[in-house]
Amino acid sequence: MSASSDIGAIAKAHAKWHWGEIVFWCLALSCAFLFPSRYLIMTDIVRLALFALSLDLILGYAGIVSLGHAAFFGVGAYSAGLLSVHGIVTEPVVALVVAGLAATVVGFVTSFLVIRGVDLTRLMVTLGIALLLEALAERYSNITGGTDGLQGIEMAPILGYFSFDIFGKVGFFYALAVLFVLFLLARRIVHSPFGLSLRAIKNNPLRAAAVGVPVNRRLIAVYTLASFYAGIAGALFTQTTQLASLDVFAFERSADLMLVLVIGGTGYLYGGLIGAVVFKMLQELFQMITPQYWLFWIGLVLVVIVLIGRARLHRWVLFVPNWVIRQFAGSKAAVAVPESDAS
């Protein structure tokens, strides 16, 4: 068997669905029935998970660090809001795609600036882009509504059948369906030859270029794709809250996204999803205990993660499930810690 066949077999094996993934999505869906009074917070978690997924595509797979990812979230949020306010596109799903494409255009244009630098330079460039867009949104307050935000956002029924309700039930199922579809797309991409080339670029861009990988074009492509995902997340925010203000461009939004990926890990897609759940749960818990100092406790959790190590925490959490699996299905079926977090 040739080396290329070996690589293809390995990639195909990694692309197969694990039973743990199926359980994860079943649990996500079951939350709608287990916590019927918590639709709003669950929708917030789903939006954050999609937003984190967009950053993981560039950070976990291409090594592009960004502190201004809220720029595309904001573009998507305002695009969805303006489409609704002016009656340009009233159907939510179509408006969602249009808003995502608007963020994609911004991402493609700015990607040429981002790929020129590395690490600290990229941090400053991405942060500068977000701050610039926030300043423009504030400057043209006659369009964006300024600090008061857009007024008169009303969402039409989804596909003409499902109307948004004040309890957030329709919004939750809508957001979860969008997250699942985009997750499937992202999963297919990262396990494709394109995704493998991104990993090669992240590990060693010079070596990747030497074997013929078009490094810059790959980075532009994944950065543009991540912008689309972030724009969709922003549009979901506007459609499910009927709100779009300058806060969508805030630095804190990008910073929270980094915290989510620190908690959940990068480079295996589920890191952003798990991190979003844990981050929001911790935020809710600490705000109930100490409303004024909840950030202190979040910071303490991050310190513990850094000191103990995410891989060790994963082993502790999965100890009982793995023990049960070994008893009934053999040790080979144990839940594995993601390779990206094993180091």
UniProtKB/TrEMBL annotation:
The chain crosses the membrane at residues 22-41, 48-73, 93-115, 166-186, 219-237, 257-282, 294-313. Keywords: Cell membrane, Membrane, Transmembrane, Transmembrane helix. Its main location: membrane. The keyword Transmembrane applies. The keyword Signal does not apply. This is Amino acid/amide ABC transporter membrane protein 2, HAAT family. Pfam families: BPD_transp_2. One of its GO terms (cellular component) is plasma membrane. The lineage of its organism: Bacteria, Pseudomonadati, Pseudomonadota, Alphaproteobacteria, Hyphomicrobiales. It is found in: Cell membrane. InterPro entries: ABC_transp_permease, LivM-like. It comes from Bradyrhizobium erythrophlei. GO terms for molecular function: branched-chain amino acid transmembrane transporter activity.
